[in-house]
Write a structure and sequence with these properties.
Layout (H helix, E strand, L loop, with lengths): L9 H5 L4 H15 L9 H16 L2 H5 L2 H8 L16 H19 L6 H25 L10 H10 L6 E2 L8 H5 L25 H5 L5 E2 L5
Antiparallel strand pairs: 1-2
The structure holds iron/sulfur cluster (2 copies).
């Protein structure tokens, strides 16, 4: 039986851990001060490397738990309604195209003044400004985590390790749909209860659904 999902915005927001509010502040500080203090721009490559590198170990876990922008979208904008995302956002050609364009733009700008670290900081700050603006537009138009369906860091992380340690769904699931209401990626979790695990490589492994399940039938593989 499939459950009609109520896209109530509140459950996911309430289930976020407190430290995510602090991570969200990092984005605001970088955006507000990075144009005057270029060193702040280097937060961007550190966050990118952490998200992509972490993908080899547990897919998009970093996206769901440590990404500053993801934390901002979850906590500060989590009250926004969630609407179904357009299909093009899950098209892999589109996602890799966005990655190539953004990384290409960044490298092209860095090579303008390759020996100047302040220039590099400004380039990273500018990239943060562009992508965060896009993320805010997608949050308002579709869903708070809409950007996370096309984010280049997430594209890499999902490809290199998105199949590792998938969410486990016990057969005693009552198909109440509360997990789906809370999932920031709007996954149809109930549809996979007979298979026993969620197959989506873009699962953020944020555990929001695990906390939302009143029957406690969602879990992570032992050792993850
Ligand atoms: S919240 Fe728990 S019991 Fe309800 S549908 Fe989701 S996994 Fe099943
Ligand atoms: S399925 Fe669960 S762990 Fe995965 S993104 Fe949705 S809420 Fe987070």
């Amino acid at each position: 039986m499939s459950v009609a999902v109520n896209h109530s915005p509140w459950p996911a927001t309430k289930l976020q851990p407190a430290y995510k509010w602090l991570l969200a502040i990092v984005v605001v500080v970088v955006l507000a001060l990075g144009w005057r203090l270029p060193a702040l721009g280097f937060v961007v490559p550190v966050a990118m490397a952490t998200g992509m590198g972490g993908g080899f170990f547990r897919g998009r876990w970093v996206c769901g738990n440590l990404c500053p922008r993801g934390s901002l979208l979850d906590t500060w904008l989590g009250f926004l309604p969630r609407r179904p995302l357009p299909e093009w956002m899950s098209n892999s050609a589109v996602r890799w195209g966005i990655l190539l364009v953004l990384i290409g733009l960044m490298i092209a700008q860095l090579t303008v003044d390759p020996g100047n670290w302040r220039h590099w900081g400004i380039v990273f700050w500018r990239m943060c400004l562009i992508t965060t603006t896009a993320a805010l537009a997608l949050a308002v138009t579709y869903a708070p985590r809409g950007w996370c369906s096309i984010c280049p860091v997430g594209t890499v992380a999902s490809q290199v390790g998105g199949d590792k340690q998938p969410l486990q769904i016990a057969s005693s699931c009552r198909a109440c749909g509360l997990c789906e209401q809370a999932c920031p990626m709007q996954f149809a979790i109930v549809d996979h209860r007979h298979a026993g695990k969620l197959p989506h490589r873009d699962c953020l492994k944020c555990s929001i659904c695990v906390k939302a399940c009143p029957s406690q039938v969602l879990s992570w593989p032992v050792g993850s």
